[in-house]
C-alpha cells in the first residue's frame, strides 16, 4: 500500500525486505512513536472544570445536579484521596462504605500492578518493566493520588531511555498540575519539557506544538495575555492538544486573549480573517464572540456593547480565566474607547454615549476612571459636554525625558566635582 509507513519513509519496499523490517526489534532509544490521536478531553481536566463550577455556585445553573454528578464520578473512579476533602468542601454526606470500597479497590489494583512489575523484572526486559511502571503511575494519576503519581512517574523516568517517552510522561505530569491548580509546578514542567526538546532526538514537531498550548494556558492563567495570544495563534492550524481542551474552547481562549492584547490591524489579520477561527467561531458562546470581535474591528460600538456581556459571562465561567474577569472587562472596554476616540479631535459626550448605547453618566464615569489611571488620552470638558483628545507627542516626550536625565547627570557631576576639590 502506497501510504504505508515504510513507503512514506523512503519509496517502495519489497515484500521480503518488509518482512525483515517488521521482524526487526526497535531499539528503545529510537522509539519516537506518538500516541494515537484522541479527540476526547482528559477526564481529570473535565472534572477540574466541574469542580470549579461547584466551588462557585453562583456560576452554576443546577448546583445539586452537578454535585451529584461529580460525587458519582469521584466514587466511580475510586478517587479515595479526593473524596473526603470534597465531602468537607461541598457539604456531602460522607459514605464510609463507599470510601472503604474505594480504598480496597485501589489497594487491590496497586498490588496487581506491583505484581506485574515484579514479574517483568524477573522474567522480561527493561522495556516491559518500564511499561508496567508507567501503568502504575497512570493509575495513581487517574484516581487523583497526586503524590503517589509524581513518585511513580519519577521512578518510571529513571527506567526510560527514549526521549519521546519521557516527554509524554511530562505531559501527564503537567495535566496533574493543571488539575490541582499548581501553576508554579507547571512552569517547572514546561521548562523541563523544553530541555528535553533540545536534547538529541528530542526535536519533535508535534510535541512542540502541544507544548505551546500548555504554555499558553499557563501564561493565560498568569495574566500574560500577550504571551498566551502569541502561542495560541501559532497553534491554530496545528492544534492536536485535545487532552487539554476542545478546539472550540481553544479558539475561544485565543480570541479572548487577542482582543485585549493585539492592535486593530493585527486582530484583523491574525484572528478575524483566520480560516481556522472562521471555521468554528459561530459555535462559540452562541455567536457572541464573533459579534464582539467583528463589531470592534468594524467600529460598530453598539453591537460591541450588546455582545460584550455574553462574552464576559463566558470568561467568568472559565476555570482559567475567572480570576481575570474584571481585568478582561476593563481592558476590552479601554480598547473600544481608545479606538473610538482616536477618530476625533473632539466629540460630545452625548454622541459617544449614543454610539455605545449607554447613558451619558455612565460614559462620564467610565472615562473619568480611565483618564485618572492614564489609560486614555482625553480631557472632559464638563461645562460644554465635550471630550477633547490630547494625543501624546512621542518626540516631545522623548525630548523632555532627555532634558530631565541631562539635568540629573549635571547635578551628579557637580556633586562629584565638589568631592574632588576637597
Question: Could you provide a short overview of the structure?
Answer:
The protein has 21 helices and 3 strands. With 422 residues, the chain is mostly helical. The protein has a 3-stranded antiparallel beta sheet.
List keywords for this structure.
422 residues, mainly alpha, three-stranded antiparallel sheet, 68% helix, 3% strand, disordered N terminus
How does the SSE layout of this entry go?
Elements lengths: L4 H6 L4 H9 L19 H13 L7 H14 L6 H8 L5 H28 L2 H17 L3 H13 L4 H17 L3 H16 L6 H17 L3 H10 L12 H13 L4 H9 L2 H6 L7 H10 L3 H16 L8 H17 L4 E3 H7 L4 H13 L5 E4 L4 E4 L4 H28 L1
Antiparallel strand pairs: 1-3, 2-3
What this model shows, in words?
- The chain has helices at 5-10, 15-23, 43-55, 63-76, 83-90, 96-123, 126-142, 146-158, 163-179, 183-198, 205-221, 225-234, 247-259, 264-272, 275-280, 288-297, 301-316, 325-341, 349-355, 360-372, 394-421; strands at 346-348, 378-381, 386-389.
- Helices cover 68% and strands 3% of the residues.
- It contains 21 helices and 3 strands.
- It is mostly helical and 422 residues long.
- Mean pLDDT is 86; it is low at 1-36.
- Helix 10 (183-198) runs antiparallel to helix 11.
Amino acid at each position: 500500500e502506497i501510504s504505508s509507513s515504510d513507503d512514506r519513509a523512503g519509496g517502495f519496499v519489497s515484500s521480503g525486505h518488509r518482512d525483515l523490517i517488521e521482524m526487526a526489534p526497535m531499539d528503545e532509544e529510537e522509539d519516537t512513536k506518538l500516541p494515537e490521536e484522541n479527540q476526547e478531553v482528559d477526564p481529570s481536566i473535565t472534572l477540574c472544570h466541574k469542580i470549579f463550577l461547584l466551588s462557585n455556585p453562583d456560576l452554576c445553573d443546577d448546583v445539586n445536579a452537578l454535585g451529584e454528578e461529580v460525587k458519582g464520578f469521584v466514587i466511580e473512579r475510586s478517587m479515595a484521596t479526593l473524596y473526603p476533602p470534597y465531602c468537607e468542601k461541598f457539604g456531602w454526606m460522607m459514605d464510609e462504605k463507599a470510601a472503604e470500597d474505594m480504598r480496597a479497590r485501589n489497594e487491590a489494583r496497586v498490588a496487581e500492578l506491583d505484581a506485574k512489575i515484579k514479574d517483568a523484572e524477573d522474567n522480561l526486559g527493561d522495556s516491559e518493566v518500564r511499561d508496567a511502571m508507567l501503568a502504575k503511575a497512570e493509575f495513581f494519576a487517574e484516581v487523583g493520588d497526586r503524590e503517589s503519581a509524581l513518585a511513580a512517574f519519577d521512578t518510571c523516568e529513571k527506567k526510560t531511555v527514549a526521549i519521546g517517552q519521557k516527554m509524554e510522561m511530562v505531559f501527564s505530569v503537567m495535566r496533574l498540575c493543571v488539575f490541582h491548580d499548581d501553576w508554579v509546578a507547571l512552569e517547572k514542567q514546561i521548562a523541563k519539557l523544553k530541555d528535553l526538546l533540545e536534547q538529541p532526538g528530542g526535536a519533535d514537531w508535534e510535541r512542540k506544538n502541544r507544548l505551546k498550548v500548555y504554555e499558553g494556558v499557563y501564561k493565560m492563567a498568569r495574566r500574560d495575555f500577550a504571551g498566551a495570544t502569541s502561542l495560541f495563534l501559532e497553534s491554530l492550524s496545528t492544534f492536536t492538544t485535545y487532552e487539554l481542551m476542545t478546539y472550540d474552547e481553544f479558539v475561544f481562549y485565543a480570541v479572548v486573549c487577542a482582543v485585549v492584547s493585539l492592535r486593530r490591524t493585527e486582530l484583523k489579520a491574525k484572528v478575524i480573517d483566520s480560516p481556522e477561527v472562521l471555521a468554528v467561531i459561530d459555535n462559540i458562546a452562541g455567536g457572541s464572540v464573533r459579534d464582539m470581535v467583528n463589531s470592534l474591528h468594524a467600529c460598530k460600538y453598539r453591537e460591541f456593547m450588546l455582545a460584550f456581556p455574553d462574552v464576559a459571562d463566558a470568561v467568568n465561567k472559565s476555570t482559567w480565566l475567572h480570576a481575570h474577569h474584571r481585568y478582561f472587562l476593563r481592558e476590552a472596554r479601554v480598547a473600544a474607547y481608545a479606538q473610538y476616540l482616536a477618530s476625533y479631535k473632539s466629540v460630545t459626550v452625548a454622541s459617544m454615549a449614543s454610539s455605545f448605547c449607554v447613558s451619558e453618566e455612565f460614559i462620564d464615569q467610565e472615562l473619568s476612571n480611565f483618564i485618572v489611571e492614564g489609560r486614555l488620552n482625553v480631557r472632559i470638558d464638563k461645562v460644554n459636554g465635550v471630550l477633547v483628545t490630547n494625543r501624546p507627542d512621542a518626540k516631545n516626550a522623548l525630548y523632555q525625558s532627555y532634558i530631565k536625565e541631562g539635568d540629573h547627570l549635571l547635578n551628579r557631576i557637580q556633586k562629584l566635582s565638589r568631592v574632588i576639590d576637597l
